[in-house]
Design goal:
707 residues; mainly beta; 5-stranded antiparallel beta sheet; globular
């Protein structure tokens, strides 16, 4: 379809045309789009082809109709302009936008340490306000301003639009959403977009936020031959934290002799992860003690081989990499998440093969792996499973490229008519429990995706598919998704998938208000179903959210305050909705208005960093009967959840926003390392506490004694 056109001019604060300015049309609610799989959120303007000409003019053609968008621009010497909304329709397929940029305000000041001495060379950053960011009501580039202090500790943040900014000094890698970050280090400053604000003082503690934890982790890292490894990176998860919903992490590196000393770990370490470019990543769990630790890393291996076609020739070009071989999950959720992070960070990088088909893969980790080769016109081809040992130099490996299979099919409407522009998604079924959890639990942006669109006859095709088992699902913006079809590809050639029929979907429309009845923006909204997985959205600037094209089933709507979570508080509210057909369910929810259950846990020897306490509906199963490795059970359990809190390290808890009624208050039992899913299978999971709870007209305070 041709689409519409957005055009106009951009003028600099000097009144002259703004030449070569980058522009992008992004979804109006960018955070919501990101939660639902819009990857452009992460690309930003870096690869945006639209730019103004010498006269400051721009023209963007082919803009989708009936989509709510925002025009975003970025100019180094001007403040970000207010959000400009774009909504083209068949009746109004064009929109003229003329933008006059302003210089904006500046914030200047100095950074000192805790003793009052100036600090040179430290980053000063603007810390996003989660409520504003989550509401989708601010430009992402409003927060993308930073500066480094000069030799006199001075800084200047320039070209700021009107608004309040939260400033902090520290490493670029510091997580200012963390509740363990000292809130006093963040200084709010308001500007009007015209006048400057000067004389701001920021305090930077080079040792990080003071911690309640004492003790150090000391030891040495060596390779499998006993040689010391210098500059190895250690990441330590400690079992005790303060006011945090996530485990405290400590990090450090080894010296020239392989020794390390890392402070603030307490008396118990849950796990240590050690990485080094020339050695295989090592994870140590259930660490005994904190001092004199000896950690061994295996030397990486190398693999030489050749990639050929079925007739024995070398392909014109190809890329090759190594991946962990398919296996049953280790039960360690953290290991799996870290492996995903490794792939995103490029540690599983592809290399280009040589023209004669040969290749050399270096720094291959020990363990069971598979090589994967990709070449234009061929399927992504996996080699045999290989067991790699420390320092091995493997040669003679050969991979024969296959053409792969082709899947073709058709998508139809509820009446059986072909559907044009339906999205057909293809996912390989790996048999790995963690992979299934990712598909159901994680945001759309992290899920595996291979999609095509149907033509005017409702037809689609996937070509050059590697051998394996696949799941095919069709979806459309105006209809509920089809039931999945499973297909096995074990030969080259074409296979036809059964017809995928869409259905008339239901929808859930909601509005969140505060205790005064005003719109409550910026809250995260999750929609969970044991049958249909999880979707994510957020409350916009009007407090509204929507989920459309829903298949029949039971759904749980869970509203969470991410800003509160960043302070170490669990603030949430739940509603449960049944969709039976194409009806529209509406919800108006008063957030922050309800009853409170609070108290203290007494007698629990160690409080896990993820220890929760739950308010459940009376007919809810026990937490001990819910398999943490089964996504369907986990999602189904959510329909019984009325409220939840994370128990603080002093044993106190607070669950608010509860409706009057009869419930059950339950304190689940967790292993020492809550991320180790395998541990749940061997421990006694009988809850520490599980008793009826009645809520009438007033709050309830209760102390729970654990024996």
């Amino acid at each position: 379809k041709i689409g519409g056109t957005v055009y106009g001019t951009v003028t600099l604060p000097t009144g002259t045309p703004a030449e070569n300015v980058r522009l992008a049309l992004l979804p109006e609610n960018i955070m919501q789009a990101g939660m639902q799989g819009y990857t452009g959120l992460y690309a930003g303007l870096d690869n945006e082809p639209h730019r103004t000409d010498a006269a400051g003019r721009f023209e963007i053609k082919g803009v989708a109709l009936d989509k709510r968008l925002q025009l975003t621009i970025r100019v180094e010497a001007a403040a970000p302009p207010p959000l400009t909304r774009v909504h083209l329709t068949e009746e109004t397929p064009q929109q003229e936008i003329n933008i006059e940029l302003t210089k904006g305000s500046s914030i200047t000041g100095v950074v000192v340490d805790t003793a009052g001495s100036i600090v040179a060379g430290v980053q000063v950053r603007i810390i996003p306000d989660l409520d504003v960011l989550m509401s989708g009501g601010a430009s992402l580039y409003s927060f993308d301003v930073n500066a480094k202090t000069d030799d006199k500790g001075r800084f200047a943040l320039k070209h700021l639009a009107a608004g309040e900014y939260r400033l902090a000094a520290g490493s670029e890698t510091l997580n200012y959403f963390s509740p363990t970050q000292d809130n006093d280090a963040i200084v709010p400053v308001e500007v009007d977009g015209v006048e400057d604000q000067n004389g701001i003082t920021l305090v930077y503690d080079p040792e990080g936020t003071p911690t309640e934890l004492e003790g150090s982790a000391t030891g040495r890292v060596t390779d499998d031959l006993g040689n010391p490894i210098s500059e190895a990176s250690l990441s330590i998860m400690v079992s005790s934290i303060s006011s945090s919903m996530t485990p405290t992490m400590r990090s450090g590196t080894t010296d020239a002799d392989g020794h390390f000393a890392i402070d603030g770990v307490g008396d118990t370490i849950t796990r240590i992860r050690v990485t080094h470019p020339q050695h295989s990543t090592t994870t140590v769990k259930d660490v005994a003690g904190t001092e004199g630790l000896e950690i061994e890393m295996a030397r990486n291996a190398s693999i030489r081989g050749r990639v050929i076609t079925a007739d024995g020739n070398s392909p014109a070009s190809y890329r090759i990499t190594h991946q962990p071989a398919p296996r049953e999950g280790s039960g360690d959720y953290m290991e799996y998440i870290e492996s995903i992070g490794d792939r995103f960070s490029g540690t599983d990088a592809w290399i280009e093969g040589n023209p004669d088909g040969t290749f050399l893969l270096e720094n291959v980790p020990v363990g069971w792996i598979q090589l994967v080769a990709r070449s234009p016109g061929y399927a992504s081809t996996k080699g045999e499973v290989l067991q790699i040992t420390a320092g091995q130099e493997l040669t003679g490996v050969e991979i024969v490229l296959t053409l792969g299979g082709t899947l073709v099919g058709k998508v139809v409407s509820p009446s059986g008519a072909p559907i044009e522009s339906a999205t057909v998604s293809l996912r390989e079924i790996t048999g790995n429990d963690f992979d299934e959890m990712i598909e159901k639990f994680m945001p759309m942006a992290l899920r595996s995706k291979n999609t095509v669109a149907t033509n005017e006859y409702g037809e689609y095709a996937f070509t050059h598919l590697a051998y394996g088992e696949y799941e095919v699902v069709a979806s459309h913006a105006d209809l509920a998704p089809s039931d999945p079809a499973q297909v096995m590809i074990d030969t080259d050639g074409e296979q036809r998938v059964r017809t995928l029929q869409l259905s008339a979907g239901g929808s859930i429309l909601g509005k969140l208000v505060d205790k005064d009845g005003k719109p409550r923006a910026g809250l995260m909204v999750q929609l969970m179903s044991s049958e249909h997985g999880m979707q994510m959205s957020n409350a916009d600037s009007e407090g509204q959210f929507a989920f459309a094209s829903l298949k029949p089933g039971d759904y749980s709507v869970i509203i969470s305050d991410l800003a509160a979570m960043a302070r170490g508080e669990m603030k949430m509210k739940t509603r449960h909705v049944k969709i039976e057909g194409s009806e529209e369910a509406t919800l108006e929810i008063a957030y922050g208005l309800g009853l409170k259950v609070s108290g203290k846990i007494i007698g629990l020897e160690t409080i896990s960093p993820m220890q929760s306490i739950q308010v459940l509906l009376p007919d809810a199963p026990s937490s001990a009967d819910v398999d943490p490795t089964d996504p369907a059970q986990q999602l189904d359990f959510m329909k019984y959840l009325a409220g939840m809190a994370i128990v603080k390290q002093d044993g106190t808890f607070e669950i608010d926003d509860l409706e009057p009624g009869e419930y059950r208050l339950e304190l689940p039992k967790l292993p020492t390392n809550p991320m180790d899913l395998e541990a749940y299978k061997t421990m006694d999971r009988t809850p520490h506490y599980s008793k009826p709870l009645k809520l009438r007209k007033s709050d309830v305070e209760i102390d729970i004694h654990v024996h």
